[in-house]
Amino acid sequence: MKAVRRAVLEARAIAREFPGGAGVRGIDLTVAAGEIHAVVGLNGAGKTTLMRLLLGMLRPQAGTVRLDGVEIADAAPQAWAGVGHLVEHPLAYPELDVRSNLLVSARLHGIPRERAEALVARALAEFDLERYARVRASRLSLGNRQRVGLAGALQHDPGLIVLDEPTNALDPAGVILLREALLRRAGAGAGVLVSSHHLDEVARIADRVTVVNAGRVIGNLDPAGVDLERAFFALVHADDVERPRA
């Protein structure tokens, strides 16, 4: 019998709608310690809005979000310090070099300076950024800025990791580095939530795959299943056909 893993993030019936009809409608979602949970959907499905709601960047109009069992509005600063996230754009101050950006990120997560120096050195090596340590972020390619953002989100070994389309702009080498970094952290007990439309990459790392469409959960996919892409599009198509009749 499998042991029940602790939920590090839990959403119940969260909803947030915008003028014009876009948004998220009544989503339930859980991320357990030690698992990688992927959320997949077409562009405009509501993935980024969902991530922002889960991180408190947007307030839900209905429903609740809990971080380690505590509603996010009541979560202590120490709890948020144990979260690593990248949503939409990587945190990188353009006039600071890569090393300084990572140091700032570590300090913003409450890491003492002495330990932060060691974490930054490790992050530079983990994401193959050592050659860019003294290069200003404004001079980096999009892919390397994404690496800096990911390194900053992961370097403090957070217990919860939330990443929105993290492979955007990454070259194949960067994708592999990220994959290995997430597997290491999940193996050490972190809960990982990642949104993506790259089904082949999701299948390599995810324990669970949740499909969203038009702001709703419409089903799940088996990451070990055959022809994941066909199964995904079948779910989305069936939902698109049925939804106007509701």
UniProtKB/TrEMBL annotation:
Domain of life: Bacteria
SMART domains recorded: AAA (SM00382)
Domain ABC transporter as annotated: residue spans: 9-239
Entry keyword set: ATP-binding, Nucleotide-binding, Transport
MF GO annotations: ATP binding; ATP hydrolysis activity
Protein family (similarity comment): Belongs to the ABC transporter superfamily.
PANTHER family the UniProt entry points to: ABC TRANSPORTER, ATP-BINDING PROTEIN
Protein name, UniProt field: ABC-2 type transport system ATP-binding protein
Native source organism of the sequence: Agromyces terreus
